[in-house]
Amino acid sequence: MDTCLLNWLWNNRRLIGVVAIIISIATWALELTDLVYVCPYCRTQRTIIGLLGLSLLLPNTRNWINLYLASTIAAFGFFVAAYQHFEGWKKIMFGKFEWGEHWYINPWLLSGFALFIISGLLLLIWTLPRAAKHVDSE
Fold it and tell me: Which of 29, 49, 68, 112 lies 20 to 30 Å from 39 when distance is taken between CA atoms?
């Protein structure tokens, strides 16, 4: 991975954590105002995204307690999102998949995004920035 991008992500980890919390709160607000249907899988995923965002706001994200809790929470989120995502793949394989009228709230699509977000947040929690390698030109 490019050290410049890694360092940028590391330096902006608190901003990324705040964005994850905003995503969590916004999606909870959509459900609580009955704009989207009630989904236990989605509830779990959005809560885990918010908790991982909170984890990024801690002063020392590399603390072993934070690493343990974030990894445990993320593993549960991976399982839930992967199960929901696999159900969509089963529908695709059997020819029963439909995007629906509101394709942007399709569970298969949203669970894929949740897998991507949860893995990215967990990797950012576990990653340390590396110094850029300089090549001496003689």
Answer: 68
